[in-house]
Amino acid sequence: MGLLDPSVWTGKVLSGDWVAAAGGERTVVAPATGEELGRVGLADAEDVARASELAAQAQPGWAAASYEERARVLRQAGALWEQHAGEVRDWLVREAGSIPPKADVEINGAANECYEAAALPSHPYGRLLPTTQERVSLSRRRPAGVVAVIAPFNFPLILAIRSVAPALALGNAVVFKPDPRTAVCGGLSLARVFQEAGLPEGVLHVLPGGPETGEALIADPRVRVVSFTGSTRAGRAVAELAGRHLKRVHLELGGNSALIVMDDADLDLAASAGAWGSFLHQGQICMTTGRHLVQERVAEAYVERLAATAEQLPVGDPATEQVALGPVIDQGQRDRIHELVTASVDAGARLAAGGTYERLFYRPTVLAEVTADMPAYAREVFGPVAPVMTFSTPEEAARLAADSEYGLSLGILTGDVLRALDLAGRIPTGIVHINDQTVNDEAHAPFGGVAGSGNGARLGGAEANLEMFTETQWVTMRGEIAPFPF
Fold first, then answer.
1. Is 252 one of the annotated active-site residues of the chain?
2. What is this structure's pTM?
């Protein structure tokens, strides 16, 4: 029996033990074909309450485990991702519409996240403080308790494991709500890997469900920290609810990231980078290159190269064909993409490539002669669309790049690296890549956006993870009871 054999999970949800979900069931569908891959249980508020209670009961014992034990479980989880890579890849391809190389990036990323997290239990967790009194004064980090993780469908494995792994490593219990559209590759896979890795029962609970499930999880009094990845609109609602219940919250939200192409850039390499940034995983990535800002002297040549690349990229079922783009996740997402493209063309944009679809397969699309008020430029498309807008000076490029409600990632392509560094300093963004496109992530690097893209780098690297998933406790110690005047 494989790690994700449907006979194990059909109609079930992991909540401490395998139990029937109170929220009904959902069909697991392959977006490329519409094929039913199985059925998965959906959690409701009752499931959330039970999982949170079990997590709160199990967490103290897990936190009390030696740092060697917690590190061992995380290392074993990393090895299991590698051991079961073929099976997990198959589910990422079929259920999430990933091309195999993108699925491999997720699996390798999941393993690396676990290996990085395995170093957290032995990381220094306190410091001595000066004090005016005759005592020892120190601060130390303690596990937050029960952590809620809510992750989306697009990179379902990485966007879950990068919170789940460090939270567990630091002694927390986790209640995790994956998107029900990717409940197997982005939900059950984590449950099974950590189960096989020896994580104690009750420390991790996986509850697929919709917005109501997420709301119940955020509001549950046993949950102390919320890690949410999703749209900016949903993130605002999460932050409001978390604030009402005095929960600490990490928000990794949407983006409309700019790629600035200066006139001294190698245009062949620039167009290749731009195509990767906009079309990888059908553009369904928060860091996707959503705006191409190209210096006017080379704009026409850049559009020609980008459109030529888009025209020759194969689109199809990644489970049966060697393709560059697979399907978008569902019909609602496809229709939204096409609406934004059509509205932009109606507003005067030139369709240089793409703009068509068959079923859920949307062709990579290039829009030229774009202005700032066009929908496909001004809004996050979350599809394989590359709007190109021109600028004349670096100052104008900085102004255009900064003119967005988002601030997640930025790419600058140029022959003058120091000029690019200066330019980046004028643009509010959480991430900058010089001579690279906007889609980048590494387990040990701080990750997060500003403004509408989130509330800063709360994930990646020991410092960010300690800040996110632990509480600071001040401790003083005296050799004997202090004397007082009364």
1. yes
2. 0.95
Q: CB neighbours of 430 closer than 8 A, spacing ≥ 6? A: 407, 408, 409, 447, 448, 449, 450, 453, 454, 456, 457
Torsion sign across C-alpha atoms 327, 329, 334, 336: negative
Indicate the SS3 state at residue 332: helix
What are the residues facing 387 on neighbouring strands? 367
Q: For residue 255, give both structure tokens.
A: 């983006």
pLDDT band at 25 (very low <50, low <70, confident <90, very high): confident
Given 114, 185, 286, 380, the catalytic residue: 286
Model pLDDT, residue 1:
56
DSSP string, 375-444: HHHHS---SSEEEEEEESSHHHHHHHHH-SS--SEEEEE-S-HHHHHHHHTTS--SEEEETS-S----TT
Enter the tokens of residue 206.
């996986």
Tokens of residue 250, six digits: 């990490």
- The active-site residue out of 25, 113, 116, 252 is 252
pLDDT for 18 equals: 39
pLDDT at 15 over 90: no
Average pLDDT over residues 278-305: 98
**Rounded to the nearest 10 degrees, how much is the dihedral formed by the CA atoms of 361, 366, 372, 378?**
20
∠ CA 183-245-165, rounded to 5°: 40
Q: Which two tokens stand for residue 290?
A: 């959503």
The DSSP symbol for 297 reads H
- The whole-number average pLDDT for the span 123-142 is 96
Please name the residue that has the structure tokens 């005067």: 348
Residue 283 backbone phi and psi in degrees, to 5: 75, 10
In whole angstroms, what is the distance from residue 421 CA to residue 410 CA? Answer: 11
pLDDT of residue 98: 98
